[in-house]
Amino acid sequence: MNPRLAVFRALLERYGPQHWWPGEGPFEVMVGAVLTQNTAWENVERAIARLKAAGALDARVIAASEPRRLAEWIRPAGYFNVKARRLQAFCAWYLERGGLEALRRQPTETLRADLLAVHGIGPETADDILLYALGRPVFVIDAYTRRLFARLGLVGEDWGYERLRAWFEDGLPREVPLFNEYHALIVRHAKEHCRKRPRCAGCPLASRCPADQSVSRASSE
Description:
By secondary structure, the protein is mostly helical. The protein has 13 helices and no strands. Helix 2 crosses helix 3 (about 40-55), helix 5 crosses helix 6 and helix 10 packs across helix 12 (about 175-190).
């Protein structure tokens, strides 16, 4: 069996559907994608709640806000001064491109290249926006994905972002629900088992993982 599909099925069997992305509407998802850089999602939720309470979860409001005020609204997300600049740059771009409906009419590759030209938008953030907000079949690569599949021996630890993305996209059906669910399952699994210090006991992928420490310990006893 295709190892990418085999891993997906094992994770889905263990954890079930994850119902991602946690956001109310495409624009909120986009804002969350920018704010979640280098922080936990719980912090992003607090920042978004503060934007909502201030009536500021709106592209025009964010783009026109005084930077220090915006930074204070999003303070819980961390790196708030940097993220305020990035969020304003994104919202200015969003408005210049005509908003959500205009973006939906753009071809995926054109839209991805355009996103990557925005200040502070890297490949992972761009692909989060494309997949979760705009429903495009792009596979999101994050640190959890890299760690898990390197431990499984399926990818090289030195593979770059685009090579990893191509490896997934070339080996899976190009379906948005599949890519959405797969990324969410990887995050769930990485938090429960495939941590920096892995919890291998009970891992649903242990039988296919060369790095399984529970097997190594048992064989040495």
